[in-house]
Specification:
The chain is mostly helical. Helices cover 46% and strands 9% of the residues. It has 14 helices and 10 strands. Strands 1-2 form a two-stranded antiparallel ribbon. A two-stranded antiparallel ribbon has the order 3-4. Strand 9 and strand 10 (261-265) form a beta hairpin. The protein is extended, with a radius of gyration of 53 Å.
């Protein structure tokens, strides 16, 4: 992918190419034949067929040998001579020369006890001019001593500047400016100078764990080492009575443990379970109705189901008495249902209701008139 500056430069040179050959263009642009072809394809520029330049193949043998001794590879030689890969290989075959690849050249140097520095590109003695390095082939660094010292000094300076920038930033913790630090294990704020051991790899040159936590970690590491030694012998130390007993016979099964056994022996576990049961029984005897959840979980006793409370009957309040009407006009009249006009028996409900309504109407009329 070409940049805008490269695109403008290449376009200007290719448009004004005229009758120049591809070798001259490669020499002017500093490109190989393959790179020039790719640039022309990307820019969409077509040149007339290249005319043969017989002078381009007139390269003396001494010049090729000098380039080979300088450690130039084929791509660099193509750019310097303005030849294609095919033309360069033809010249090398004509003179009986061979250009080694970087890997082949390095193997040849190493066979002679030499190495080429990847920084200054100079060939130096492998045993005396390179520092030891286990991570690299032949146990030597790829940079010579001078280049590695210069690179290390630059890296140290860069690290100091980065550390100074970090320390210059305002701290997010209010106690950091007071010479205090919070331990990452116990989360307690303690004096930095006295309670935290020195550690050059940490910020401020002090460890992130306090001395007490360091001692606790050491003790835990020793206990773990001792437990591993006992486990190799088929033994384990009980965490309750601290007695060393047989692992498979005296400890119950616990799949969550790394050894598959409980940390307390069977005797201690049985005694603790008995104490929990007695505590639950005492709590039940003291307060049979108030059994706390903690006692239930600690003793492992399943509570009995309490009886359901019986529903209580709430008495219904009496209905208020209806108000007495002051006059017959305001008193509501009973609704008389519609009665069929057919003949009804004298003792039928419809006949009795009709007679009752007529009697009430005859008695109310004179009362209303009065």
């Amino acid at each position: 992918m070409l940049t805008a500056e490269q695109r403008s430069r290449y376009l200007e040179v290719l448009k004004n190419a005229g009758n120049r050959t591809r070798s001259e263009l490669c020499r002017e642009l500093g490109l190989s034949y393959l790179e020039l072809s790719r640039v022309m394809a990307e820019l969409g520029v077509k040149l007339p067929p290249a005319r043969r330049d017989p002078a381009r193949m007139n390269v003396p043998r001494a010049k090729l040998e000098e380039m080979i001794r300088a450690g130039m590879n084929r791509s660099q030689m193509q750019i310097a001579l303005g030849l294609s890969n095919r033309g360069l290989m033809r010249l090398l075959k004509q003179y009986g020369l061979q250009v080694l690849s970087p890997a082949q050249r390095n193997r040849q140097y190493e066979a002679q006890g030499l190495r080429q520095c990847i920084e200054c590109r100079q060939v130096k003695v492998l045993a005396t001019d390179f520092y030891n390095d286990r991570t690299n082939p032949l146990g030597k660094n790829r940079r010579c001593k001078e280049c590695l010292n210069r690179w290390s000094a630059w890296h140290r300076q860069r690290k100091k500047l980065a550390q100074a920038e970090t320390e210059a930033k305002p701290s997010r913790t209010p106690w950091a400016d007071q010479g205090l630090r919070r331990c990452r294990r116990c989360h307690q704020v303690k004096p930095l100078a006295t309670e935290f051991p020195e550690s050059p790899n940490e910020r401020g040159g002090r460890s992130v764990y306090c001395r007490a936590c360091h001692e606790l970690r050491k003790q835990q590491a020793l206990e773990k080492q001792r437990a591993n030694e006992l486990a190799a012998q088929g033994l384990r130390q009980c965490s309750h009575c601290h007695q060393i007993k047989r692992l498979n016979e005296d400890f119950g099964v616990n799949r969550r443990d790394r050894l598959g056994r409980q940390t307390r022996c069977r005797d201690c576990q049985r005694a603790l379970n008995q104490q929990k049961r007695q505590a639950v029984l005492r709590a039940r005897a003291a307060q049979p109705d108030l059994l706390t959840t903690a006692l239930l979980h600690s003793g492992g006793v399943r509570p009995t189901q309490a009886p359901r409370p019986q529903p209580t009957l709430v008495p219904t309040p009496p209905a208020p008495a209806p108000a007495t009407p002051t006059s017959s006009a305001s008193r509501p009249q009973p609704t008389v249902p519609t009665v069929s006009t057919g003949p009804q028996p004298a003792n039928s409900p419809a006949a009795r209701l009709s007679a009752l309504s007529q009697a009430s109407g005859s008695t109310d009329t004179p009362r209303a008139a009065a």
